[in-house]
Write a structure and sequence with these properties.
The chain has 356 residues and is an alpha+beta fold. It has three domains: 33-111, no CATH class; 117-278, no CATH class; 280-356, no CATH class. It has ten helices and 15 strands. It has helices spanning 13-37, 76-112, 120-131, 146-154, 160-163, 191-198, 252-256, 280-291, 298-318, 334-348; strands at residues 3-5, 9-10, 42-48, 51-59, 66-73, 139-142, 156-157, 167-172, 203-204, 210-212, 218-224, 247-249, 260-266, 272-278, 353-355. Strands 6, 8, 9, 10, 11 and 12 form a six-stranded mixed beta sheet that branches. Strand 10 (210-212) and strand 11 form a beta hairpin. Helix 1 runs antiparallel to helix 2 (76-112) and helix 4 packs parallel to helix 9.
Amino acid sequence: MIAENIEFQRLNGDQGRELINTQQRFQTFLEARRRSFGYRGSMIFAVRNGAEYLLRDYYDPKSGVKRQRSLGRRDEHTEKMFSEFSKGKEEAARQLKVATEILRRQAAVNRALEMGRVPEIGAKIIRALDGADLLGKGLTVVGTNALFAYEASAGVRFPSDITTTEDIDLLFDARVHMRLAADEDAPERTLLGILKKVDRSFRRSDRVFQAINGEGYLVDLIKPMRDPPWTVEASSVSGESSDLEAVQIAGLAWHENAPQFEAVALDARGFPVRIIAPDPRAYVVHKQWLSERPDRNILKRDRDAAQARWVAALIVAYMPNLPFDSEMLRSFPKSVVESARPLFEMARSGADTFEM
């Protein structure tokens, strides 16, 4: 029997204040970015067939190819459209520049307070997925990196031995019709292309579901095991044969059908990163189930069990709005849910140790 102390490191007053400031300033940045995104492309007056027309350049949302369409002949109406677009584009760019600079200054404060948590490469990948409009819309962060969302929401820190990671797992929901947001400077419109934009050294490994960069950082694309396993469904984000192809893993359908959880964490440089992960209660139940599988590597089972215990304790102590609710966990088999129940009961009883 092993006893483990569950004692969270809480953020101090300065850190808590700056985390809130960062999250608020990040929302301002996101709003400025969304507005700027709406002004991509350009408007110009050009002569066509002997008459002047107002033309709008835009990027096709399906292909990412730059296209052009006419908004009408030059007159008072199109002159007004051109003027409003030009002013709006300039103002949106100014707002985004200001919001970006504020985040840079905030990140310096966060670094001074040693608040960075999410590994830099993982944070860059998650941001890239968010920018491509895939995060939470077909791709969810699972595994160890989800812990950073849970601890940020609670204003505490998990111990480093359960958060250290050199990879990231992305859960692919093949039921969702996914469309990568058009990006004029993307090298290719694939998941692998997004990773290459983050780090040019990323390539698909010998395992088609996995990408690896020059430093050995791994990105795994995973999806639920279907019944029957040969069920026909999408295997990649883009549908391209050169892209990562998700591998089927048992138990992930439970995550796929559980509620999502969103939080803004801080990366190693102090910059904010929005993470969308499974509901932490679902995380506990799934990790406890993994820890009991005899076919799983024993070192991984031990870590799964530790992560399940710590997240259960976090929920009980800091997330009273998330009770252990069988109805919420209805996507899990009843026996799997009941196996995790003691973790919540021990935490709720006020015990300062867990025994296993």
